[in-house]
Amino acid sequence: LQSRFAIPLGILVLSALAIPLSQLSPRDGLYANILTAFLIDFSYTNLQLFSQGLLIKGSIPAWFSGSVVYLLMLLILIILLVRFYGRDWVEMRLKRVMN
Description:
Elements: H1 2-22, H2 34-57, H3 62-85, H4 87-98
């Protein structure tokens, strides 16, 4: 079940991460965020395969295996948004979503 949900959730998570990575500041080069995007994608793929392997072995429960990777990617998304837009903007958006 996890491998069936991994592809659609991965598309949503990685496309959401692409938004802050596509923004360039005037002092950055054209390829400033490509290394960051590559490392995020590489880490996501490895974590997903690692958690699936642990789930198959029975080392971790299914709910933990399916959620820990996406919670980590959500944390990375929030960090990238705070880095680019600032803390006040992110807090305002989160309050709007929660209400």
